[in-house]
Sequence to fold (103 residues):
Amino acid sequence: MTPIVRHVKVKSDASPYDGNLIYWSSRMGKHLEATKRVATLLKKQKGKCTHCGMYFRESDVLEIDHITPKRLGGRDEYKNLQILYRHCHDEKTTEDGLVVKYT
Fold:
């Protein structure tokens, strides 16, 4: 028996050439202007920040983060990577206890 797979229709005004990196990367896992790593992570996360749960927008500053920091034994592979807003990345890094405080 073949399982039924439902597909979400493309927005009527969307085009891969419209510059909407977040929409197309989240949808397809690839985009002309994004690296493969960024596009794959956006698709995996369904266009959301895993720290705060908010959807990314085109103008947002995004950073790739290691879920388990490399200093704590994390590896540089997709299952240990996520995309976060820059400010969420700063918060997570602080929570990980990896910020060097200067006095």
User: Anything to note?
Assistant: The longest helix spans residues 86-95. Strands lie at 62-66, 81-85. DSSP finds three helices and two strands in the chain. The domain at 21-95 is CATH 1.10.30 (DNA Binding (I), subunit A).
